[in-house]
Structures
1.
Amino acid sequence: MTHLYSVTLGVLVVAGLLTLVRLVHGPRALDRIMALDVIVTMVIAGTAVGMTLRDDSTALPVLVVLALLAFIGSVTAAHLVEKRKGMR
Amino acid sequence: MTLLRDVVTAVLFLTGACFCLLGAVGLLRFRDTVSRLHAASKAQTLGLLLILVGAAVNRPLRDAPVLLLVALFQLFNAPITSQIVGRTAYRTHAVDRRRLFSDELADRLARDGTPLREQGGLTPDKEEGKNPDDEDR
Amino acid sequence: MSPRKRSRRILHHLPLVVWLWLLWVVLWGSLSAVVLVGGLLAALLIVALFPLPSVLPGAVPRPLWIGALLFHLLVDLIRSGTTVAWAAVRHGGRTRSAIMEVPLHIDDDVLITVVAEITTIAPGTVVIEIDRRRRRLYVHTLPVRDQETVDLRKKETQDLERRVARSVGYRHAPPGRGSPIDPSDVPPRDGTPPDHRGERG
């Protein structure tokens, strides 16, 4: 069964690499902001899978902090993009 | 009993990871920012939710509330992020007009007398660098 | 302030204090006395320092409708993930989308926020603009095949709004306030053009 968990991690890594392409290539800043949010989301998912694999709960605060960071970071960055474009 | 729990966790994990993967594929394949928002917010959130629920099933009872809390938090904050990004995207012309079937917001803005500033149309990915809006590389 | 009003104000804030306290205890992960007492103090401090205006006065939570709302939310969550995943795989870059305008009947900040959130969670729709003053949501939807799809999604959003309104016992604005004439189509008397770009939120 733990093999399946490792497969999950593998799938998440592939997804992360695809998002990395968007992060590098995405023509606009907004695309990059979204890609970063997605990557952090996948890091949260990967941490949860890793916790199950290793049967180790010490990474629990990491999940909370990452979730908060992703949210506040994306919102702030999007606001700054809008401000820079002179839309406000 | 633990076998059943492990099977449930494995199914949830794999399904969640597949949704994350398909969300990333959508992030790559869709042509404009607002469509990518669909993939990023919906598929990724669902994938994360499934994975966190799978982890909550498998971890001892102490961890489950925190995991479910994070899942709930993501569920309710992803739409907020996507609304703000979507609004900025629309106002900075990040919408691919060729794929747009109808745009009632532009119609309404035109009717109100405050049309969205159109500067030679939108930027499909190929035409980078030609649109003066694209200062934010 | 009369003691009755004061007790009513405390009662208003009680759910928030309890919720914050619960969050604190869950996040610390232990039920020791320090955590419990500290959590209570922290919750009270936060609610005292950052008082929120009382939300939805006169709201009557209807558990049956709330249950239906939650059920539909769960189903929609799964459907939306599969819809987007399928659209990504099947059509990819050729996916067509549309931006539609959904007029709302609800006129309350919290409820409109809830409707916008659940609309974004629902399959195929993402809210990109909220016109609070004129009570309209602008929703970007994909995949779109023809006008029928757009109308269907618009109807789904309005059904969602109705479900949210019913679950808190919200009564629509009495006739005469939400008049059928769209106020933005009538030029205001002082001659300034209606300003959409300055809208907040």
2.
Amino acid sequence: MRKHDFLPVSVSFITLAAIVLSLVCGSTSVDLTAIFDMSAPDGIIFFSIRVPRTSACLLAGLAFSLSGYLLQSATGNDLASPNIIGVNAGAGAAVLLFLCLAPELFWLLPVAAFVGAMSAVGLVSGITVLTRRLDSSSSLILAGVAVNALFNALISTLGSLFPDTMSSYSSFSAGGFSNIDSASLYVPAAIIITCIAVTLMLSRTMTIIRLDDEIASSCGMNPMAVRTMLSVLAALSASAAVTFSGLLGFVGLVTPHLASFLWPEEGKTKLVITLLCGSSLVLLADVLSRVAIRPAELPAGVFLAVIGVPFFIFLLLRRKS
Amino acid sequence: MIEARGLYVRTGKKILLEDISFTLEEGRIYALLGRNGSGKTTLMKALCGSFRQSFSQILYDGRPLSSFSRKERESLHAILPQNPPSADMTVSSLLSLYEGGREILKGFRPFLDEERRLSSLSGGERQLVFLAFLLSRECRLYCLDEAQSNLDARSSQTAVSAMKSLKKDGKTVLASFHDIHSALEIADTLLLLDEGRLVFSGSREELLETDLIGKIFGLERRILTDETGRSVNIFLHRAQT
């Protein structure tokens, strides 16, 4: 057994521990021995608040880390992630637009989010292809800045036109999991799990596409088609999560690098470690958001930004060196 | 048998390859010669499926490339690019993608540290790793784009041995060379490109009967005799002669 072989098991245990923490910690601590008494407060809190919230954190962690992993493979750029290139902002703007115009059709939110996310991917790809520098980090990031600005302008406009719908915008923008409703998770969960299953099947293809187009073509692939498919999967999973978690940032950027540091080999194991890291990170950020200023709450996105921003700067510095 | 029939490649308004026809047979090494920008890399990329516009002009046993499925194309051709990519992945991740060529690969083991990342390797080390990757694939056509350009003398010899092993296994090898002497020494057949057109296809002797090397590369041929009495062709720049 190699020195790294125990790692997937260790990361799984960390995720499991984060799930347990998320279930028991919060503004009120839950006694796990009393949860099956549905007339007691602990039972009600556990099943109607903690379980949906923990599931939401788990799903959001899976979705954003998957999206980052896919985008970094599709673009060959390790700075690509759903919030950097505007996927989150695109999905968020579309969700808010939909809520403002047709709130009664809330079950169609994932479709609206996907359309917004794909618009962002399309715009960023268009700008970078026009400048013929798809793999250039500066071109991709600058295109992302422009697309982010565009969708944030749309969000601000909606804020002025529909102040009632936008009252909860600040928490949506920062990303968080307060007031999660189980029903809002069913469709996104199905989308996210499907995306994970498809990505696991594409694991070998993704390793080859990370090399270059010439080699990918010689391996029988159509590189443009593969990159488009990976981008669609990335947009789909991130947009599904945005519908219930808001614009949670930095998970998609940080976790593929963390997984790469822990498990250098490409393939399914690395993908699973990325997903587990993403879930653990979001679960722990959410626990911190609940206990930091108890009984009040901060958005989980605040804690993710605290971890993510220094990491992003570290990455930029490492690239420079 | 692999055929290019009227192969034509263009990007935008620029014509990269024009009306190229030739046949490659199994168990032979073909050298591709030409000045920088003559279309050597483009020709290799076209044969390895990089230009969908030319799929119908490339035939494997009479079947156009377009009629093969993605899975079938994977076992037709492999390419070693002139500048292998420096992706952020380990050498072992790359070499575990395919299972073939285990015997040939044994010769590479002393040179490869499988724990290292491609991005941390020098140009020569990366070229050797991608040569090993090329050999791990079970294909019919192996294209090597200036495989020896970044290699030291010892590694370069490993690359030559690899080409000869592929030939022995009945594979087709198409390699472009920076150095004409290596091409003349290794190849069974030589293909000469000039400004996107094929201007010569034939054996070493046939090429030496022409003045094409002089015309295209500005080189002058000298014949030296070594101590065993063997004649050796040396090409020198006209300014040096």
